Amino acid sequence: MLNTDSSTWSHFVAGHPDASIFHHPSWSRVLARSYGYDSCAAVVRRGDAITAGLPLMKINSPITGRRWVALPFSDHCRLLAVDDASKVRLVKGLVETQTGGRSPRIEIRDFIDHSAVMGTRAYLHELELEPDSNSVFGRFKKTRVQQSIQQAEREGVIVHRNSSMAYLRIFLTLHGLTRHRHGVPVQPRRYFRVLWEELLRHRRGFVSVAWVGRRPIASSVFLCWNQTLTYKYSASDPAYWSCRPNHAILWDAIRWGCEQGYRSFDFGRSDAENTGLRAFKGGWGATESPLVYETIGGKTEDYGHGLTDRLMGIVLRKSPAILGRAAGELLYRHVG
Question: Which pLDDT value is given to residue 234?
């Protein structure tokens, strides 16, 4: 095991083409500082060099039990390897660690293809970017996306990007309203403060805000690193949905990514049964691929999708917003 803050791990992920922001040491610090997890990376070495690696969070919860997760609150976290032999060695080592009693179950946000693990399926949507943003625009569905972007322009929607705490506070106001509307607990305030300290203020992400006049009507948080722009959070005022502010924000971010030389726009996870969300992302020209979560030493848990969670959603929607904030402060660290 290796400390994710070590220069050896930083050098490995910085040089791997498949590394995402979720492999970056700063993301591990966000999770560890926000939720009190212990972080490490499981690695295979060849001499002094790492040839395979996977970041992990060690969770010890009275609610969801003891487990190692790669990684909590991350739509995906691929096992990184320079060759197949190194990947096989790392998977074998993780299996032996778990079956030998040296770790609890290990949950991995990737398909690792081993008989000792079991998987669950969702989908990942990724849009290939290119320097010419107009060419990317041409791949969008005309009625679903292109016309909505044009409508936002007619409605006078203006999008600004910023990495400041002031913009993050604007997002948090809309985010709280959106979560209450959906009946979902709000992440702890500390999480977003640490997200700003570790990522946004170091230009590894930004906040976009859509305005009509002086009124903020939608906002999103994007993370960016290693030529991939990741769409992490979104919130909006439903009174202004007819202005298509979310389309305006996404198009502004995609266009910025093209101008900055990014090669991929990550729309994130969609559950298999959420056909509406999958169609929305597909309308942007994103490629859909299977997203499999696997577990070594137990059944894969999909927290947030059971009957208890649906009942809690009904209660939160009908309760004061402060209850959703309190629930988030109490529960989030247990369900990552």
Answer: 97
